[in-house]
Amino acid sequence: MPARDRLKSIATLGLPIMGGMLSQSLLNLIDAAMVGSLGSEALAGVGLGSYANFMAVALVMGLGAGVQAMVARRKGAGATSEIAAPLNEGLLIALLLAIPLTLFGWFQADAIIRFLADDPAVVEVGTHYFQWRVLAIAAVGANFAFRGYWNGTHHSGRYLQILVVMHLANIGISYGLIFGRFGLPEMGAEGSGAGTAIAMLIGSALYFAATWRSGRDHGFLRARPRWRDIRAMLRLALPNSLQQFLFATGITTLFWIIAQIGTDELAVAHVLINLALFLILPGVGLGMAATTLVSHSLGQNDQEQAYRWGWDVVRVAGVTLFLLGIPFWLAPHLILGLFTSDPNLIALGEWPLRITGLGMSLDATALVLTQALLGAGASRTVMGVNFGTQWLLFLPCAYVMGPAMGGSLLVVWLLQSVHRCINSLIFAIMWRRRHWARIDI
For the ranges 56-70, 131-145, 253-267, which has the lowest average pLDDT? Predict the structure, then answer.
């Protein structure tokens, strides 16, 4: 396939997914800007609550990659009438996992947030925010499963359409609940969590309606999930979910480490991570395009084509993230000023934001090849690498060189960039060795 056609294929599949990821990033940033106007305690509390929620939903997030890989593989093999069967299994697993997670999160919210922070004002905000978010765990799991189906069938534009509607609803509802607009009660920072939970439920309803109309011929809800297929889905999804859980737990642990440095550092770290996600999520979106392209090629038994897709998407992602990161290292004070007017917070975040903008292109390899390896079925290997570099290297070093030795937020952020570069190097070596090409899913 000529280079121009390959680039067109990446753009056709990847741009809608990347657009969806960018809309998620913009939503996070708008949410942080609205909550930031309420003060550093509210910003820190929402930060803790959101990453505690990330830990909970991470256990169902792996369903997206599992469904997408199996759907794309069946599509590549020509099994038209069974393409949506993995979606059925994904939705069932999402429901079964969400029930205990929701109950545990709701009743243990105060204990979880109190473990992460000592400031009573931060704990109160974080607890109420977290309780609202865990009510939507089932919807989040369903949304990831639906996303996997639409991306796996090369119809990522439908996923983008629904995601944009969901995010617009999220912004409007959250704004109304935070500030008491549109006849809604004024809930403060807690309203941000309630608005997001409601928007997730709206998204699930839209996904269901769209899939019901066009997915019935592919087997959507037409046959009971088979135990054999459920086990196959679990083999793919659970390692990825566990990886996401360990990553989310690592981010929450990072917040705990930063909380030991200070509340101001914790507040600005929430903004910094959301700004970093503005770059990371489009990279993940292009990686999800690689998931489909690699899985489809392997379904056609074309290993060389699958290998080339991985590197092609890495190149596109590297250039894209570099361009998106330019404002971060050119004018960090102006960007941070959109979220807080506190000069102390802006000064704390200026150099970490520069590091984020400069280092993100180096992270493109890990972002893309992680998803490509998931598409090839190497979910256990991906989990092992991410666990080792995050938990055995980065987090211990961040604690020792941060609060234990009196280091600043800047020191922690530098270590995080080094950690991402190491991940990129490891995944590049793994992709070149091609062990993933022999995995049968």
Answer: 56-70
Q: Over the Cα atoms of the chain, what is R_g?
A: 21
Residue 340 maps to a domain? yes
Spatial separation of the C-alpha atoms in residues 37 and 271, rounded to whole Å: 12
User: Structurally, how many domains does the chain consist of?
Assistant: 2
Position 433 in a domain: yes
Cα dihedral 232/238/239/240 (nearest 10): 110
CA 86-375-197 angle, to 5 degrees, is 60
- Reply yes or no on whether the pLDDT at 128 is more than 90: yes
For residues 51 and 177, state if they share a domain: yes
Domain that residue 409 falls in: 239-440
Please check whether residue 233 lies inside any domain of the structure.
Answer: no
**Token digits for 190?**
């807690």
- For residues 312 and 247, state if they share a domain: yes
Exposure on the CB side of residue 51, measured as CA atoms within 13 A: 27
pLDDT tens by residue, 72-92: 777 776 666 678 778 888 888
* pLDDT tens per residue across span 331-343: 999 999 888 888 8
Residues 6+ apart with CB under 8 A from 347: none
